[in-house]
């Protein structure tokens, strides 16, 4: 480094001097990292999206646009590939990572972690809205399609009610309770009060099992019976109780448990 400083100092006096190639290569190596700015314009994620459309980009390139930059030794695309690789390139699994999880990757600070989390949440909400547009419930599968984007990948249990009119069209979906990993408390009176206020003639119960098991617990069975009995006194039918996991579901109606 002392030799380098001498060359630089001398160069300020004599501009024609050339540094030895070994020193130039050393300086280049120290400053070199895989900057997206050095790529061909067609290969840069932002420019690629503008020129070829969003469908032309890989998942890693889309995430790279969110985080905007990588680290000193890694491009945004390379960093994005590393993050996706940690969840086996599964966007649903990526959506389960919290801000602290994302910040464990070198090059991801709080702002970048928030950007990724916000984008994935928008995607989840879009799926919910698409399901709500269908509105009419005609099978347990349609309940799963409606509720899976809401409940499928949660790390804790939540209990929701789907309120229906006499044509089985969705009037509203509401979270009734939120609990821990193994259970949640449900207020039967509140569930039926909401039904009366909405003018619902039928309801469908739905909750998730973060463990992935589809077998209903005795508490699940008992709660279903209580809600069904309470609903009958108000002429409100309980059409089904659907347990949701990430990839599948269990229907009380399909299994003749109602």
For this entry, give a set of tags.
5 strands; 258 residues; disordered N terminus; Cytidine Deaminase, domain 2; 5-stranded mixed β-sheet
Count of spatially separate domains? 2
What is the CATH domain class of the largest domain? Answer: Alpha Beta
Q: What pattern of helices and strands is seen along the backbone?
A: HHHHHHHHHEEHEHEE
Q: What structural category do the secondary elements indicate?
A: alpha+beta
The CATH topology of the largest domain turns out to be: Cytidine Deaminase, domain 2
What are the SSEs and their pairings?
Blueprint: H1 2-13, H2 21-31, H3 45-52, H4 59-67, H5 76-86, H6 91-94, H7 99-103, H8 110-134, H9 140-151, E1 158-164, E2 170-178, H10 188-198, E3 202-208, H11 218-232, E4 237-244, E5 249-251
Parallel strand pairs: 3-4
Antiparallel strand pairs: 1-2, 1-3, 4-5
Helix pairs in contact: 4-5, 8-9
Summarize the structure.
The protein has 258 residues and is an alpha+beta fold. Helix content is 48%, strand content 13%.
């Amino acid at each position: 480094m002392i030799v380098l400083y001498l060359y630089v100092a001398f160069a300020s006096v004599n501009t024609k001097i050339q540094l030895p190639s070994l020193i130039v290569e050393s300086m280049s190596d120290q400053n070199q990292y895989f900057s997206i700015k050095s790529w061909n314009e067609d290969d840069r994620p932002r420019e690629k999206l503008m020129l070829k459309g969003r469908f032309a980009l890989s998942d890693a390139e889309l995430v790279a646009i969110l985080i905007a930059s990588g680290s000193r030794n890694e491009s945004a695309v390379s960093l994005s590939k590393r993050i996706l690789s940690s969840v086996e390139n599964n966007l649903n699994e990526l959506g389960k990572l919290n801000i602290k999880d994302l910040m464990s990757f070198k090059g991801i600070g709080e702002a970048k972690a928030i950007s990724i989390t916000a984008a994935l949440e928008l995607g989840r909400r879009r799926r919910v809205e698409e399901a709500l547009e269908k509105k009419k419930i005609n099978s347990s599968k349609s309940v799963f399609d409606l509720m899976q984007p809401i409940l499928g990948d949660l790390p804790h249990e939540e209990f929701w009610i789907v309120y229906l009119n006499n044509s089985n069209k969705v009037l509203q979906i509401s979270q009734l309770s939120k609990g821990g990993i193994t259970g949640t408390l449900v207020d039967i009176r509140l569930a039926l009060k909401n039904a009366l206020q909405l003018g619902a003639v039928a309801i469908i119960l739905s909750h998730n099992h973060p463990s992935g098991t589809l077998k209903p617990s005795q508490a699940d069975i008992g709660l279903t019976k209580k809600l069904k009995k309470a609903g009958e006194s108000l002429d409100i039918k309980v059409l089904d109780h659907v347990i949701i996991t990430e990839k599948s579901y269990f229907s009380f109606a399909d299994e003749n448990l109602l």
